[in-house]
Write a structure and sequence with these properties.
Layout: H1 3-22, H2 24-34, H3 43-66, E1 74-78, E2 90-93, E3 106-109, E4 112-120, E5 125-129, E6 136-141, E7 146-151, E8 157-162, E9 172-175, E10 185-194, E11 200-206, E12 216-220
Antiparallel strand pairs: 1-12, 2-5, 3-4, 3-12, 4-5, 6-7, 6-9, 7-8, 8-11, 9-10, 10-11
């Protein structure tokens, strides 16, 4: 190598070193330009995208599993997790005023009424379920359409059934309240007994679902 070329190379190396020392960000760009990125250099971005896709797939799997079909007269909605405070008396769902949800509308899980909306937000709603002590709804029981009143609570019951009415275990209990689609099933009659004042009959209710397992619902429009 000639002396002239030697000094030129030395000056070039010194300039490059100074450039990297005083402008490190440009140094990284130069490194990426001159050679392939180090393994894992962009892994964080890829991992974030993968997590997003997995979350979307999990949501879709839940919807398909619990709501195989959707009625045009309902709004499909996801139920927010409230773990570890999984109260059975209310649900928080992601359908709100922007989606057409309104107070008083029925909320259904796999064709069964689980409660009604009592508070609506812009992008969500609170649902009062049949397990809320304050829940009340006129219902009918069995093929004879016997009148009764659903009284919510930890163990909901149907009260105010006429003493001479024929009500048997296994009879269907269904909604008969204004503003709720007529005959939406709620549950089945469990045990039948006489009320404390001996004036009426009352019936316990067997439900076909577990409140803690509900992840999606449909809201009546």
């Amino acid at each position: 190598m000639s002396k002239r070329n030697y000094w030129f190379l030395a000056v070039l190396i010194a300039a490059a070193a100074a450039f990297l020392a005083f402008a490190p960000s440009y140094g990284w760009r130069l490194r990426n330009f001159l050679g392939p990125a180090a393994p894992g250099a962009d892994q964080s971005g890829i991992m974030a995208e993968n997590e997003t896709l997995k979350a979307e797939l999990a949501k879709l799997d839940t919807v398909v599993g619990q709501l195989p079909t959707s009625s045009p007269g309902t709004i499909r909605s996801m139920v927010y997790s409230r773990y570890p405070l999984n109260f059975k008396n209310e649900l928080l769902i992601d359908a709100g005023a922007n989606d057409g949800a309104a107070a008083g509308k029925g909320v259904v899980f796999q064709g069964v009424l689980v409660g009604t909306i009592y508070q609506v937000f812009t992008n969500g709603s609170l649902v009062q379920t049949v397990f809320d002590p304050g829940f009340r709804m006129p219902v009918r029981v069995g093929t004879s359409s016997v009148d009764g009143l659903l009284q919510g609570g930890t163990e909901p019951i149907v009260v105010s059934i006429a003493k001479d009415a024929t009500v048997r275990p296994g009879d269907i209990i269904y909604a008969a309240a204004p503003g709720i689609p007529y005959a939406l099933p709620i549950g089945e009659v469990g045990d039948v007994s006489v009320s404390a004042n001996a004036l009426f009959q009352q019936a316990s209710i067997n439900f076909a679902y577990d409140m803690n397992g509900i992840k999606t619902v449909e809201v009546e429009r």
